[in-house]
Amino acid sequence: MTETVGTGAAAGQNKKPNKGLTVRRVFTTEGTHPYDEVAWETRDVVMTNWRDGSVNFEQRGVEFPEFWSVNATNIVTSKYFRGAVGSPRRESSLKQLIDRVVRTYVKAAAEHDYFAGPSDLEIFEHELTWMLLHQVFSFNSPVWFNVGTSSKQQVSACFILAVDDTMESILNWYREEGLIFKGGSGAGLNLSRIRSSKELLTSGGTASGPVSFMRGADASAGTIKSGGATRRAAKMVVLDVDHPDIEEFIQTKAREEEKIKVLRDAGFDMDLSGSDISSVQYQNANNSVRVSDEFMHSVENGTDFGLRARLTGEVIDRTDGKKLFRSMAQAAWECADPGIQYDSTINDWHTCPESGRITASNPCSEYMHLDNSSCNLASLNLLKFVSEEGTFDAPLFAKAVEFVITAMDISICFADFPTEPIADTTRKFRQLGIGYANLGALLMALGHAYDSEGGRALAAAITSLMTGVSYRRSAELAGVVGPYEGYARNAEAHQRVMRKHAAANELVRTYHGNDAAVRALASQEWQQGIELGVRNGWRNAQASVLAPTGTIGFMMDCDTTGIEPDFSLVKFKKLVGGGSMQIVNQTVPRALKVLGYQAEQVEAIVEYVAQHGHVVDAPGLRPEHYEVFDCAVGDRSIAPMGHVRMMAAVQPFISGAISKTVNMPESATVEDVEEIYFQGWKLGLKALAIYRDNCKVGQPLSTAKKKEAAAEAEPEKVVEYRPVRRRLPKKRPSQTVSFTVGGAEGYLHAGSYPDDGLGEIFVKLGKQGSTLSGVMDAFSMSISVGLQHGIPLEFYVSKFSNLRFEPAGMTDDPDIRIATSVMDYLFRRLALDYLPYEKRAQLGIFTADERSAEVEANYGGQSMDVEVLRSSVDASPARSEESAKDTSERDAHSTAELMELHLGKAADAPLCMTCGTKMRPAGSCYACEGCGATSGCS
Question: Which portions of the sequence form the region Disordered (predicted)?
């Protein structure tokens, strides 16, 4: 709980009263540090790529609380601990990580007079520490990467750029985007200021149009990738619907998808990470069309719509609104792009219209504000606020929001930014993006169906409370350290939007005592916040977004990400000491208890779910309760409009927008896509994207290691081992392989004995005459002499594969997608070419065809029946997590792959480029629960 001391600053001014905030303890106990309240244990983190057996990451002896899962431990250790692995400066405890971040925030708070005194600073430090330690919330990834280190203190994950109709601006766009990608983040921008291909240049020639410039930016993004890592960069490209080149923009990715099909049928490797996919354009960005109310009315009424010149604004062409809308739906049906952004709605909720329109979003579509700006994010774990009685603790949630939003604003005081325009805008408007995760799990645990009036009412009330508290605290901060610099110019508009939020809160229809209590508190917060804001102004131009929460969701051990429903009723759990098991989500027995089922009934239903992956025909479960357990995928998956209705319920209480893709079945029609896009507008959404199952060619199948030989292997050669050199004949068979590892190109020349068997290698890497070239020559001669003296190739393979050093990363070899070093690649390639299957199997090295054959042999297109482990299971409902299925002998390595086994078909999700695990949806992006990697910007 907090109180504001001081008379406040006049709205629009940056006066600082003498005193700051006073705060009270909520989660902590005076005299006891949060670290002393929990039991700690030491763990070893060893993460492997299960497809080839290589070790992706290893750090032993790390310290974490006992209640943190193995998965959260692995992801935090590998992603967020700073310092070189193996060096004394490497972080080895969660305490060090939290202290590094929290103490930086506390130091900045002291320097900028946020709190009344030292005791308030101590409470603030302890409360943040406690909440992070207990997984109540998390900052976005850049905070964990950068804060408190020698790196630039970048705290934002979301960026919006700007580009004008000049070559200088276009080239600067390429540069700025590249800098953001290099830093591991993503950016979005609107290209509508660029003249169309139907307009003239001042020189008299015809303009190229924005789509032509998209090619250069796409190639740059594909080359730089993100943060120098192996995943592609995240970017969003937006074009206004009245741009004369809008039809070309709509068709860009659909046409490329046709190209992918043709190349695939011709035998090229067109998987998402395939060696030939780089020849396809526009694959590094999400595309969205920005539509206005004027255009949507033309669609609704069947009238023409004018396309306008960029420089003069005059109508230079007309199009049929319905036809253009159908074109958008058709392209999205074919390849999931473009998405849609509702411009009039976005700008109607804009707090700062006097400073410029909102024209674009970040890559995941949740952050929408001024051009050349950024937003730092933090998300709360909603399940942490469920009481023992099965209610949502709204007052506790409000107090947590106070601390989190205060910390987020403090971060802008010390943050660094990738460009000066972004730094200037962000410091003037102080955009924040508080949000939450685990909504789907929360609703299920409280007995609400995701697609239900009661579920939507509770979600709306919680979201309203979160944003209402955030703006109330923002107004209190404005009274202590002043409003944001751009407030005075936008005071009237900002107050208008606050009143719109408050009015929407009063329109929420409640159905239960739970959602009614949350909404009542939200009403108080909006009323108090508006009164304070009119007096003080607000510290922040925006407060909330709903982000994908991919990596940080795993850090908090969340079952669901962002606004998403539960992905499935069963999930994949890693065990201490290695191994894994399939478990039934903890939310299932919690929901059954809330719904009134007895312990024996809960036990039987949980066991049924463990066997079947769904609740249909579960013993004793009433059919009217089936909907409570509906998930994103499976036998009872949530209908597309169910996702849209949930987004519409919470959108009026979000400053920005919602990162979410509406999944549609393969059988969905173009008319179905049109209806989703049209209803998104009618229901007041700001942005929407769809994905129709199996619409993309480049989605790779999940594959698994072989455990038995798929075919009879060639008989082994008998080799006499003695120190006698067996030289190669003058003429001998050989092969040369060109390769690329992490961008480094080279050639491997391998010579064989006429009766088979490798006898020599030569490796060309680096420029002739360079030190690296000389070292590789000497190394090649040493290996060649060893081979000719009878040292088995498998010995060298076992010694040199999985070595880790730069260059490392993606290769252009379809059999070896990722290499941890050039040595790792070379000896695994030699093993594939020269070793028999049995020896390669022992080394965990397989070809792509062998892995694909395993999928066909093991899956056979049918779901697999897995027995319930009874010997080690406590069947009591309180320990539902132990109602488990042993998957150590199965082919699933993630929750997404478990669902593939249950459904008998491959999921439309990419494989993680870091660890090879099938990813799962997280908002409009994907996240890997194996290593925490994301395909988005957060």
Answer: 871-892
Question: Is 684 or 788 the better-scoring residue by pLDDT?
Answer: 684
- Annotated active-site residue 37? The verdict is no
Q: Pick from 550, 578, 596: which residue ends a domain?
A: 550
| pLDDT mean across residues, the chain | 86
- What's the confidence (pLDDT) of residue 888? 38
* Whether 32 and 91 share a structural domain: yes
Answer yes or no: do 323 and 182 share one domain.
Answer: yes
Residues 6 or more apart whose CB falls under 8 angstroms from that of 105 comprise 128, 147, 407, 410, 411
Q: Are 272 and 910 in contact (CB under 8 A)?
A: yes
Amino acid at 288: S
Domain count, the chain: 3
**Catalytic position from the list 334, 366, 525, 854:** 366
Query: 388 CB contacts (<8 Å, ≥6 apart)?
Result: none
Q: Is 225 helix (H, G, I), strand (E, B) or coil?
A: coil
Amino acid making up residue 479: G
| Domain-terminating residue out of 845, 865, 881 | 845
Residue 362 among the catalytic residues: yes
Query: 575 vs 425, which has greater pLDDT?
Result: 425
- Strand 734-741 and strand 744-752: the pairing is antiparallel
445 contacts 590 by C-beta, under 8 angstroms: yes
143 three-state secondary structure: helix
Model pLDDT, residue 866: 31
Known catalytic residue at 794: no
pLDDT tens digits for range 386-410: 988 889 999 999 999 999 999 999 9
Do 462 and 518 touch, CB atoms closer than 8 A?
yes
Secondary structure percentages of the chain, helix, strand, coil, to 5: 40, 15, 40
303 and 380 together in one domain:
no
Does some domain include residue 925?
Answer: no
Catalytic option among 158, 335, 352, 364: 364
In percent, the amount of the chain with pLDDT more than 70 equals: 85
Same domain membership, residue 349 and residue 374: no
Tens digit of each residue's pLDDT (9 = 90 or more) over 200-222: 887 778 889 999 999 888 877 77
Q: 332 lies in a domain?
A: yes
Residue 721 belongs to some domain of the structure: no
- Please give the residue range of the domain that contains residue 222: 158-355
Cβ neighbours of residue 908 under 8 Å, at least 6 residues apart? 691, 693, 694, 695, 696, 699
Residues 226 and 322 in one domain: yes
Question: For residue 583, what pLDDT band results from cuts at 50, 70 and 90?
Answer: confident
User: Could you tell me the CATH number of the domain that includes residue 330?
Assistant: 3.20.70.20
Q: Is the pLDDT of residue 629 over 50?
A: yes
Q: Considering the entire predicted model, what is its pTM? A: 0.78
Do 345 and 384 share a domain, yes or no? no
Q: Do both 426 and 459 map to the same domain?
A: yes
The helix or strand, by DSSP H or E, that contains position 322, with its residue range, turns out to be: helix 321-335
Strand ranges (E), 185-253: 186-190, 235-240
Residues 6+ apart with CB under 8 A from 261: 697
**Domain presence at residue 628:** no
Q: With contact defined as beta carbons under 8 Å apart, do 281 and 256 qualify?
A: yes
- Catalytic position from the list 71, 74, 190, 362: 362
pLDDT of 885 reads: 44
